[in-house]
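Note to self: user wants both folds in one dump. Writing first protein now.
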Amino acid sequence: MINDDQVVPLLTVRGLTKSFAGVQALKGVDLEILPGEVHCVLGQNGAGKSTLIKTLSGVNQPDAGEIIWRGEPISISDPVAALELGIATMYQELDVVDGLSIAENIFLGHEHARGGITQRRKTARQAQQIMARLGHGSLSVNREVSSLSAANKQIVSMARALSHDTRLIVMDEPSAVLDSEEVKNLFRVVRELTAAGIAVIYISHRLEEIRQIGDRITVIKDGRTMATNLSVAETPTQDLIRLMTGRTVENVFPAAQPLAPDAPVVLSVKELGLRGVFEDVSFDVRAGEIVGLAGLVGSGRSEIIETVYGARKATSGSVSIGGRAITTGSVRAGVHAGMGLSPEERKSQGLILDEPVYRNVTLATFTRWARGGFLNERAERSAARTQLEALELRPADPDRPARTLSGGNQQKILLARWLVHGTRVLLLDEPTRGVDVGARAEIYSLIRDLAAQGAAIVVISSEIEEVLGLSDRVLVVAEGRVIHTTDASEIDEHGVLDLVMKGSAA
């Protein structure tokens, strides 16, 4: 732990404010970062964290307040100026360029060149050294980024930050797309950075991560600093939650309701396979039941439910809803049969970000509002509003673009879409990724309420605790196979990991 009485702050922020179109995103933020520390910034979605990050990285210009860098007041005019100071930012939304190689992405904007000609060998050599430092030296830096997993794209983003003469790295939800082993590697890298005197601003909704990696904490709520320079070791979790939400969040996972003995099977998956990805997957989900798929990133979990949904065409097996087989490889058939999917990447796969909220809600039932070639927008908007009010969307404005809402409220849009549709089977892939602790509790309650109304639900999450806490029954998946099935109450996180490791080694 850093002795802050003897260290000159690297960065000091005082009274920072910022407004957009009359809406005040920052109302007075104070922050102090010491060299070599991991300073965690906590806050609910919409608290102002993203605006703060963009202000420190030069994307936004503050309306008022002061930024002091190494003892001198400064103005950060743009992202290039931030990098020149030594401030690098890793955004939650991956900012790599798919059409370029790993090496080209790492040195994008500050390429090694002589006489206008890129020095490819030097670029590749230094890129390989940085990747090796991050524990991914086996990845060829000549490989195109588009072929990488989301987790490896995150590593490339981190490598880009390290390619500069960096004194402060801002990490926004860096573990969101990482499995447990990759998170351990991330923490190893962070500790190496801080040991070398580099400071890290670490933003995460996972409070257990804060406990493992953080030194001090600043909590932001409604654009204001509620508390700062809190000791990670000495501040109870409930105090942090109360500062973030204004209330105490108890029993995050709602209690499961007993499943009726005669509850019918709604979703039936038999010997489903996708060549080279997974094989011989079978399970049933009854009305009112939540079944979780637990396993590491890359185990085949997402591919299984995408195939069930019809986004991928199975090479073997069958899917039935209510006893009727549906055509695999057809999203239309799945949706028509009463199935809905909330995908892992909701912004790129689930939402049309520049369309209004109500249009995103009615997307799966669009033809319901069309008659004779004309669209009844009033009825469409009314149906969306009814569901959004039931889900307590904030802000409650169905006409604003979907991209302007927080992660938790974007997830509510997807749930509203399938409620409007009258979905019988709901497939949820990472339903709380990038969602704060208060909104998580709301989403968990919504999912459990949907089950209580008779929906059959399948949940995937990289957080094993979430799968176990939310599910009635759990399927453990490793390398494309279901290796164990059990009631959620009969297994813990260590048990799942033990099964996964043994299954992967088999």
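First done. Writing the second protein, which came from a different request thread.
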Amino acid sequence: MAEQKKIKIQYYRSAISTPVKHKLVIKGLGFTRLNQIVERVDNESVRGMVKAVPHLVRILES
């Protein structure tokens, strides 16, 4: 089985005053605290979630 590509995402800006949808996207990506870095499978659904909140998260080079 081929290993899937991974993407590292950092939650670097607070979602306190953002719409509820943005908060749900942050939670859906698996973030629980600020400046946290998570590694997710690099697919269209994860890329779409990141694209929905580009002002809150950043993609790190791996």
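Dump finished. Worth passing along: The chain has a mean pLDDT of 94.
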